[in-house]
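Reopening this ticket.

The earlier resolution said the output was attached, but the attachment link was broken on my side. Pasting everything inline this time so it's all in one place.
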Amino acid sequence: MTNVHGQVSEARARLLATATRIFYTEGIHSVGIDRIVAEAKVTRATLYRHFPGKDDLIVSYLQEADRAIRGQVDAVVARGLPAPDTLRAIAGSIADGIRSPGFRGCAFLNAAAEYPDPAHPVHKAVLAHRQWFARTITEHLARVAEPAEPAALQFVMLRDGAMASGCLSDPEPICETFLLGIEGLLRTHAASASASGTAQA
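Inline output:
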């Protein structure tokens, strides 16, 4: 929601920033509307003017996280690197996130664990993000070799494992293992393409 000048409402931005911080660090179900209102320093009426219900606030939180990740990937793609290097750079940005202070795992996997019903708007927001990510990885892997879908699934699974493990122990060996896994995946995919080309010749 914007004001007459086309700017995002300060109250909405503050509510979303507050909810994002608390939802990510403490979980979603455990956080009540009263706490968000108090910490954002707004009234309940203001919250409900911008977000009709808590689910709307949660979906907006996930949409903001989705936009941030898409922005990171777009920045990598804009560098115009060869497809394997683009995928390495995307993996590197994921590893950087895991190493960052306050990392608490994947916001989307965390939300899905709290909202397992596929018909729920929160779960749908999670799936929309994951479908975009898988599609993006598939598109870049297709520039290395076909079929790209199985390798993209492996990439996503490696990412999920690293994100889930990265907040449980020292992130450095987890990131190293993840990046080595991506490197091995790219080499295997490229070797498979080379072998296929030789066979066809």
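Reporter confirms the inline version is readable. The chain is about 75% helix and 0% strand. The first helix runs from residue 10 to 26.
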